[in-house]
Write a structure and sequence with these properties.
single chain, 189 residues, alpha/beta, fumarase, five-stranded mixed beta barrel, two-stranded antiparallel sheet, 10 strands
Length: 189
């Protein structure tokens, strides 16, 4: 769902292609609902090894991040810090990952390339940038960690399923039309 709340553009999972069609590069959005941390090894398992992602991210969001988590006991956890990691590390996987999982919002740090542009355009998804250096701010937006999958990968690579409230600001870097903010800015130099 897409709505404007107190002047903020807010996406709430599940997100549809219709929700994203009028959001463009450079726009600032916020997220309510589900976001799952998902880094290199998870992408590799899905794309190279053909494994099913044990979390349903269809019409939801992923975050390229390796968080710091505090165990609370009874299989409960608290988000301490969740700074985005460099998205370009996932570039070789992202187009196929979008196609296989149906994810609609990818959040990370820095730009991504042609494959992600194509994946976002073909499957009507967005890539957004969470400002670097704001890991504690991001953690405050996490209301609850609802699940943790692939714990065998260790804390940074585990799939931490989070419920977030006004997670952002998220700067749209690739839109559903395949426009790429970082690439456009490079061309201007």
């Amino acid at each position: 769902m897409y709505e404007v709340i107190d002047g903020k553009k807010v996406l709430t999972t599940p997100v549809s292609a219709e929700d994203l069609k009028n959001i463009h590069i450079g726009d600032i959005v916020y997220l309510n609902g589900d976001i799952t941390t998902c880094r290199d090894v998870a992408h590799r398992r899905v794309v190279e090894y053909g494994r099913e992602l044990p979390v349903d991210v269809k019409d939801k969001a992923i975050l390229h991040a390796g968080p710091i988590i505090r165990p609370l006991g009874d299989d409960k956890f608290e988000m301490v810090s969740v700074g985005p990691t460099t998205s370009m590390r996932m570039e070789k996987f992202e187009k196929e990952f979008i196609a296989k999982t149906g994810v609609k919002l990818i959040v990370g740090k820095g730009g991504m390339g042609k494959g992600t542009e194509e994946g976002c355009m073909e499957h009507k998804a967005l890539h957004c940038v969470f400002p670097a250096g704001c890991a504690v701010v991001a953690a405050v937006c996490v209301e609850e960690i609802e699940d943790a999958q692939w714990r065998d990968l260790g804390m940074p690579e585990t799939l931490w399923v989070c419920r977030v409230k006004e997670f952002g600001p998220l700067i749209v870097s690739i839109d559903t039309h395949g426009n790429n903010l970082f690439e456009q800015k490079i061309m201007e130099i």
